[in-house]
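Re: export button greyed out
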Amino acid sequence: MRFRTLVVALALSAPLQAQGPLRVPVSVDTLPNGLTLIVHEDHSVPVVTTNVWYHVGSGDEKVGRTGFAHLFEHLMFMGSKNAPYPQFDRLLEAAGANNNGSTNPDRTNYYESGPVSSLPLMLWLEADRLGWMLETMDEPKVDLQRDVVKNERRQSYENQPYGMAYENLVAAIYPQGHPYSWSTIGSMADLSAASLEDVKDFFRTYYTPNNATIVVAGAVKTDSVRALVRQMFGEIPRGPAIERPKPAPFTIRDTTIVLEDRVQLPRVYLAWHGVAEYSTDDAALDIASYILSGARNSRLTQALVFERELATGVSAFNSSKRLDGDFQVVATARPGHGLDTLVRVIDAELRRLASQPPTARELEQAKNAIEAQFLNSLEFVSAKADRLNSYYYATGTPDYFQRDLDRYRAVTAADVQRVVRQYLLTGRVTLSVVPQGRTALAATPRVTQ
Amino acid sequence: MSRARILPLATAVALVALVAAPLAAQQPAFDRTRAPSLGAAPALTVPAVRSSRLDNGAALRVVEQRELPLVHITLQFAGGGRLDNDTPGLASFAALMIREGAGTRDANALQAELAFLGATLNSGADWDNTTVTLRVARRNLEAALDLMADVVLRPTFREADVRRQRDLRLASLLQQQDQPRTLATMAFNQALFPAGHPYRRSLGGDSLATTKLDSATVRAFHDGAYRAARATFTVVGDVGEAEVRTLLSRRFGTWAARGAERRPAPVLATPVRSAERRVILVDKPGAAQSVIIIGAPGLERTTPDYAAIQVMNTILGGSFSSRLMSNLRETKGYTYGASSGFEWRPLPGAFRASSDVRTNVTDSSLVEFFKEIAAIRDTPVDADELDRAKAYIALGLPGDLESTAQIAGQITALSLFNLPLTWLEEYDRAVRAVTAADVQRVARRVVPQDAATIVVVGDLSLVRAGIEALNLGPVSVVTVEELTRP
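Workaround output, generated via the alternate export path:
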């Protein structure tokens, strides 16, 4: 790890000790066309990473056109005017660099990492596909990547045990039409329906300099990067302002779903309405999830896996996103057990945490573990770059590192108790995945307490 | 802790100057129609490793990295799954069990204390190594090392804990049947490695052997395998060699060997290089895709052709712009990804090309695989493709040494073959020297055409007739029960 700005904070693993603030020095610059550039210098190893976020994800899609933001991500590698297909990958590999992209409900991310000598190439390629890709887009490119994405859906969802649970779960948690009610991969029917015109409209709306932020981090000089970015991106025109409708508030009513799948062991998914990321109760819900299942000695892991020996594994996680969030507990039964027994134990543990706060030691373990994981994740310059982009989008402050840590330090035992009571004892979705023909193993609708 | 301790590497300074230079001057006219020139890439700088031995016989390698107050320790024991002998899965089970209670602490107390220290302690076994890794902030190093020493030297192996983990492992073995790719790998290994060969098995063992695991078996394995004489400590981070020696000697100095030393059984069998192509099918009714593996026995890691093979593989299926990816994914749209690669072990492992393809193009995909196999064997690669692959490997090497964990990982991976970290510099040179003729020569040596073993896991009611019509070779069908039966 060569992360000099973390030096002070990395020493913090001893519990509850005053620490110097964690600073990641950045320079923020907005070009006349609206493109935001964030530069972070880290000269410890001769590598550089670029990380572009377009502020568009599957949450910006329309019903009947799901999967589009992700399909579009694939199309961004299909060549542009000055770097026709397959130059994007070839040129970067020839420079010793890697690249990829990813899409989630809130944003689409493109990144390159490699020797510092490859930076001008990285920026030129990113600029060319933003400014000069649309004119080269055609039906064959769309058709081809449509096929690739359908194969991705088969590989990662349809041909995976329990692979169809997530899509069914989010459709039940979020009301119809809510941006988070469909999966980012999209449905086969919607992928088939995507047209060249859809692609062009989508690009014109969302792939604009004013809807993008680029982070450059590594062994670079800020001034040089600024000059390079202005040279590469400066003449790309600003796009129209984007309107983002806010989804209406909702509550979850108790819902029970059963899926049959080619699996040996039944698995239950419980999901509650959570909160948006960085909102007031977000950190407390993260800590609650650690106390429930984050470690070998966490409550649900202890109860279900090691004491009662009902489950092969259990995990709780707080899935907070930009507009809203959900909280899930997922447990897989051991051979010979049905899901009702597991759900009863989960309920009992949730009620116990709701009725009395976690111990001081439990809380401290959770905070220390989350903090250590946070700092370890920043070992690579590429991970720092992604977090700078993430913080900037969510909070407007790229160097939000210390404030992010402070959120967790500030959580009290009473906060954890309260969020469990407030969010995890209310209406929920109960989804059972059972072996084909074994619906008797599914969790049955609960009797309201 | 002062920031002044953190000095930028000299190479980094030089490089920044390189990137900055053209811009510091008046900006030249910018021609967007050409890719910008790259300038010189950073040279590979391999950190210095100090090698010695502790008094108890354990090897020690230290890389002092003062940039950050962090320490990464890997303790590696020669011999992993290859020590299993009559009990498949024992080495990986023992590696799991040492964290389930040690010294005066049970698994919960261990976990709680580690989390308190902000430390991460892991253990596991691959075929040739058992490893225990610790990552911790400098100031908590001593306390975390106490825990690590307990885990390595004084695991409790309580019968109740062994039984619980044994039951969990049985459940996970059952779940392997749900994973088409796991099934394909099992079918491939069982075809390639004959009875008695360690690589024929799964590291996780089988249900029969797992059922028999008890505290005495695990303890006997631990006593014979976790020994100072077969141990190597690799320490990377904010600590000097002298201090490391003191810290480790204090905790591991009295390491007493108990029981008979565990040694791998001699491997008499060699992998089966089939004289003809053969096809092995596994039925997964309703599968949305077919998993394809095409392969053959590979070479040992110490082959002089290592660099040429890596370059060849980058071109065939080891990168995004590789031929398998370009053909099967980007041209035909048959798959989300196709790749190829080797297992590099002290004994020859396997070469494999593989992909998950749409059910209705399973046979067409096999045709494309063999087109690419024929092409890399029959025709020299062109200069652009060769240069690209060589640059991709060589220029990427500095980025492989970014973190303490990466440095420790490189050292431990190389030490299995008695290679020092400076070998990376030789590798860099060797990669740059690979020619098109080398690529073709190694392709003919290791990429199988007539002697290929082909495994397909998918819905046989839909794919079998098409595969048989290709006349690739004799076709046999293996059931999931046969594959997973001990």
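Chain A has 16 helices and eleven strands. The button fix ships in the next patch.
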